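Title: [Solved] Class I SAM-dependent methyltransferase 3D structure

Original question kept below for reference.
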Amino acid sequence: MSAFDQVLGKKLAPVDMQAVARRAADAAAVLIDVGTGQGKFILDAAREVPDRLCIGIDAVAENMAKSARSAGASVKKGGLPNALFVRAAAERLPGPFAGLADTLTVQYPWGSLMRIVSEPALDHLRSLRALCKDGAELSVLLNYSVFEDREYLDRLGMGDIVDPADNPDLEGVYAAAGFRITRREVIHGDPPIRSAWGRHLVRGSARTTLIIEAVAQENGTP
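Solution (posted by the thread starter after getting help):
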């Protein structure tokens, strides 16, 4: 496997960097969803705006296999030629996707990706910034219930993370990475962006979501 593999159902193929660049240049806009999980959000986004290139990136190819197979079907059978699924670790970004995103989303991340956006980890945030065009919009949704249960956070090995809703250093670290935070708010109820994992976490429950929205600053970290 290469560092960046396109998911084609159960098969993988190295990402064709030139083809990605051409598709991005031809698209009206580019959306990248990091930690995309099953990839249903990408399918919905691609279907909603056919001239937008929608790229889902996740470290686990198997999670995206079904959505990738659906996207790769013929258009007559509901295929979505503007949807692309890529197996890659967040720590290896941006790779061939540098400077492509008009919109970058991170929805209910877990493990290392959750630490990157909530701790926050400056070097890896810079890698996320490198995915973006100047002025791109960043939307992060965090399962805030995790941070309200410090014992559970300890069991995850993340007990050292300061509550990202109140962390006074969070905006400064994001700014150093090239993002200007425009919103940081805890909400209750259904997630504002469709994601199978997000619905599993919060829908029909008392769980809460922390929303972090930001803009990629001009002359940000390349």
